[in-house]
Amino acid sequence: MCGIVGILGHTDVSARLVDGLSRLEYRGYDSAGIALMNVGGEIAVRRSVGKLAALKAELDAAPVSGKIGIGHTRWATHGGPTERNAHPHRTRNVTLVHNGIVENYAKLRDELEAAGVVFQSETDTEVAAHLLERLLAETHTPPAAFAALLQRLVGSYALAVIFEGYPDLIFAARYGSPLAIGYGPLAEDGTAEMFLGSDALALAPFTDRVCYLEDGDWAVIRTDRVQIFDGTGVEVTREIVTVPEATWSVDKGPYRHFMLKEIHDQPQSIARLLASVADTHAMTMKPFLPDLDFSKIDKVTLVACGTAYYACHVAKTWFEEIAGISAEIDIASEYRYRKRIHAPRELVIVVSQSGETADTLAALKDVRGHVAARLGVVNVATSSIAREADHVVDIEVGPEIGVASTKAFTGQMLALLSVALKAGVERGQIDKAHLASLVQDLASLPRIMSETIALEGRVSEVAQEIAPARDAIFIGRGLQYPMALEAALKLKEISYIHADGYAAGELKHGPIALIDRDMPVIVFDSAGPLQGKTRSNAAEVAARGGRVWHVGHDAKGGIQTPECPDRVLPFVYAVVAQMLAYHVALAKGTDVDQPRNLAKSVTVE
């Protein structure tokens, strides 16, 4: 959600600010703006509603330039997506951008209005700007005013601030929302261009040397030095790391949308992750997570949001059936707020593509000291969750730009399946021969997923038939029940068709009342002992005039998928669900990569 870019440059930074913002579009936004300071210390702001093209048009009509600037893409929280609510927000001496939510903004706003402040927007961010202006008048120095501001704010924030008349510094702070500082190469005079961004993608065009601020940190950034202070005001050092190119290299290539590219990326991304966790020649697992011993674990709790939660839903079955270990799943936004009974030998696994999901990160922090161990499954090895967790699995699928998760979802499933296999071995549930068979199943995944992607033409045909519907139902049993939930979410996210996923046996407990000739029902019809029951449920739909499409290896007239072992079938159904949602969205003409109202990285509650 939202994105921040800041640059302290040696030359005009206006074009580079917009370039940085363009790399944050994937996070979701509905307005954008930049603020630039000229050599005299005067600040000019340009803002617009909608896509970055509107901001570029605004800049073409009224150009601005400067060697120091901050930019922002906003996903509306307080106040609608209007120009006056867009960032940056400016007062007499302060110009500020903000990600997050200031929870005590109403109290602060009342206080400022009582003192005569007139607000121009509905945002919590403008409250922070006016409060900082007042604190500057009281303290007389930007560092003291900024430190005092952070003591007054309650909630989550990533902040970037420039002060009128100070053309050589940017202030930054984070609490609950990610923020990174980028270090450019040193010039002959010992100075360096400096950068600020919500993530490494925003900084990629400028530098690969990055440090990540920790919660509570604030920084004073100059071209000749950076000072970082922790929440107590003590100056600290944060490690500067070199970000691998694979972390930030993004290109649609020949594909129409990032989502389609990322669907097609999956055989390669799965093969890459597979190579790091399994030895497919010796047919065994490689040693990974060496400090996590499952012989000392009796319970697994999986916590996540959205698509990652459905990956956990699948993994619950894997942990129980493969590792013989009790497993629970919970939605992070619920888990963190209810009373829980922890076990002394409990492992909590949190799953987040970005590693910054606010509720998931809060849940991870909340269980610190209450369970035996905490494992993070992420796609960003430098993220907040990765730094907070006791153990980390990096799914290594590379940047995922489409808002609707594709390769990250299948990467999460493979990571969790691999952890379940490790648990099974260490708990004595899997012997050498059984493990070899399971690893053979994993080794077949890249091929099977490629064969599934080759069905895109048939999936597109089915999508054309489904696209006119206003509602849809997906059903499945066993491992395919969570896949029905995930397929329904994908369809909702990018086509705006209301869809629900159900355990097939639950149809008679209410949902069958919705069946008529206009209701498409997609049946994840996997072979196995429950196939007869699933087909009986589908027959009940057909008997009531519902339109039924079967998806499975022997799904005649529907979508016939490659034959594969039952345990890895969710990967097949994931690809079909993604392609189906994509082609329905194409037929309806929606914004596939940036669907309305959605954000890629949910960094606020």
Defining traits:
alpha/beta; Glutamine Phosphoribosylpyrophosphate, subunit 1, domain 1; Rossmann fold; 8-stranded antiparallel beta sheet; 7-stranded antiparallel beta sheet; 27 strands
Describe this structure in words.
The longest helix has 20 residues, at 407-426. The chain has 3 domains: 3-248, Aminohydrolase, N-terminal nucleophile (Ntn) domain (Glutamine Phosphoribosylpyrophosphate, subunit 1, domain 1, 4-Layer Sandwich); 250-443, Glucose-6-phosphate isomerase like protein, domain 1 (Rossmann fold), CATH 3.40.50; 454-593, Glucose-6-phosphate isomerase like protein, domain 1 (Rossmann fold). It is an alpha/beta fold and 605 residues long. It is globular, with a radius of gyration of 25 Å. 36% of the residues lie in helices and 23% in strands. The model has no long low-confidence stretch (mean pLDDT 91). Strands 3-2-4-1-10-9-11-15 form an 8-stranded antiparallel β-sheet. Strands 5-6-7-8-12-13-14 form a 7-stranded antiparallel β-sheet, covered by helices on one side. It is built from 20 helices and 27 strands.
Please give the structural blueprint.
Elements: E1 3-8, H1 14-22, E2 31-37, E3 43-49, H2 52-61, E4 68-74, E5 89-90, E6 94-102, H3 105-114, H4 124-139, H5 142-152, E7 155-163, E8 170-175, E9 180-186, E10 192-197, H6 200-203, E11 209-212, E12 218-221, E13 226-229, E14 235-236, E15 241-242, H7 245-248, H8 258-264, H9 266-277, E16 278-279, E17 284-285, E18 299-304, H10 306-322, E19 326-331, H11 332-335, E20 346-352, H12 358-366, E21 373-378, H13 384-388, E22 391-394, H14 407-426, H15 432-443, H16 445-453, H17 456-466, E23 471-476, H18 480-495, E24 498-503, E25 520-524, H19 531-543, E26 547-552, E27 559-560, H20 569-588
Parallel strand pairs: 18-19, 18-20, 20-21, 21-22, 23-24, 23-25, 25-26, 26-27
Antiparallel strand pairs: 1-4, 1-10, 2-3, 2-4, 5-6, 6-7, 7-8, 8-12, 9-10, 9-11, 11-15, 12-13, 13-14, 16-17
Main location: cytoplasm
EC number: 2.6.1.16
Catalytic activity: D-fructose 6-phosphate + L-glutamine = D-glucosamine 6-phosphate + L-glutamate
